[in-house]
Amino acid sequence: QVQLVESGGGAVQPGRSLRLSCVASGFMFSSHGMHWVRQAPGKGLEWVATISYKGTNKYHADSVKGRFTISRDSPKNTLFLQMNSLRPEDTAVYYCAKDLGDGGYDLHLDYWGQGIPVTVSS
Amino acid sequence: QSVLTQPPSASGTPGQRVTISCSGGSSNIGSHTVNWYQQLPGTAPKLLIYSNNQRPSGVPDRFSGSKSGTSASLAISGLQSEDEADYYCAAWDDSLNGRGVFGGGTKLTVL
């Protein structure tokens, strides 16, 4: 069965960095687009980033552009989100999600991880 | 302010049919398919409808989706207490070199 397991979250001071990882299993990781989506406390879902199946195409939300970078290591079935220059408004639960397709451009997120909390506070 | 607009709340009694709307623009719903996600309290979101009106395996046929122009709707018939959840629409958007966009979410209450 498909599993997505996030790690790397936690509490961090503003301006510091974190790298989230998402280990995938149960499907052909190298054939699917992947996404990061976050949810601030008590708020709705916010798309963060998308990467195509080969890693060739990457897209980031304006709110994180220049600070966050999505990447993947297909031989290790792992998705990453490098988060630099963290701000209090980045505080959220971060979800890793698999796309039905290879590009990710249809936002068909058919499997989600359990989510990992990130808290940015001094 | 979300790019896709949903009503913040909706409600119905068991057995009723309820609909949730999602309004967008030419760069998102007008150009791409719409997806719907259900989020039960304290859990990760779940794909409910993709490509406007397709149900993933395991989703009951009580849930249906439609799209017209730059708007979309999710309909739930035979409402059940376990349908009480937050519902989000989502689509790809061609502006700003490409991005994903979600609606603000609709909290469905089963009275």
Can you tell me about this structure?
The complex is a heterodimer of chains A (122) and B (111). With 122 residues, chain A is mostly beta strands. Chain A is built from no helices and 11 strands. In chain A, strands 2, 4, 5, 6, 9, 10 and 11 form a 7-stranded mixed β-sheet that branches. In chain A, strand 5 and strand 6 form a beta hairpin. The radius of gyration of chain A is 13 Å and the shape is globular. Chain B is mainly beta. Chain B is 0% helix and 44% strand. In chain B, strands 1, 3, 4, 7, 8 and 9 form a 6-stranded mixed β-sheet that branches. Chain B starts with 8 loop residues before the first strand and ends with a strand. The model of chain B has no long low-confidence stretch (mean pLDDT 96).
Rg of chain B is 13 Å
Name the quaternary structure. Answer: heterodimer
- Give the C-alpha Rg of chain A: 13 Å
How can the largest sheet of chain B be summarized?
Answer: 6 strands, mixed
SSE series of chain B: EEEEEEEEE
Give a quick summary of the entry.
The complex is a heterodimer of chains A (about 120) and B (about 110). By secondary structure, chain A is mainly β.
Key terms for this structure?
heterodimer, A: 122 residues, mainly beta, seven-stranded mixed β-sheet, B: 111 residues, six-stranded mixed β-sheet
